[in-house]
Design a protein that fits this description.
236 residues, mainly beta, 5-stranded antiparallel β-sheet, 0% helix
Amino acid sequence: MVARVFVTRDDRSYKVANLDYNPKDASIYLFVPNRKNAPGKRGITEMSSQPGSKFRIDIKTFEEDVDYDHFSIHGSGIGHSRVKEGDVIDRSQWTPLKGLQKARHLWTLVLPDISKFEEDSANRKRDLKIEYLSNMTGCVIDVIAVPRDQNINFNVEYVESNDKPTLHTFGHARWDLGEYKIMVFSRSSDKHEGSPERTLKISLPEDYVPLVTTITPTFVEGVVARLSHSKQKKNT
């Protein structure tokens, strides 16, 4: 089953990615369109898995050309990237999706400027649409798998030093699946200084989320957030 992820602006829709769910083993796949018709860039960045820890990703250090096909996380919890030639790279093992008991971060996407995207029609039943206001730049999308009977919140505190308050916008979409539900969250700010040329994918283990706070064409910065969980109350 495939769901397409869109950002919308001024009644126009722009496709960001495809999500493909395999009900046989509860695997989920991410396909990100190649905007420049050239191989992607690969880089490894170490991040602390402590809530509130700051991180910085220097995009200009991503020098290794990799022609990605897709990114996947299987029901067993194994995640990896697959390249066009068929090889598997960046293999990891975290919380299984099969029988998921707590929320798990899948991917965070830092988007290029929306002018880099082609307009497309978002008129299918499983299209996931997120509004991207015209006065905002530097959109971030978090994709998280959540047990069907849980809600989640990002839990982190940080201090901004600004001459004026920062304007933030948030959006979300949900896709209910057999084993779990996919939550897609978007975040934008009027303080972002630009966007990368290509979509930047960030992965963190377990119940951590890279909360991106600064976006420029050459680097992104942020803090590590922890997911907190709560059981949904059943009506009686």
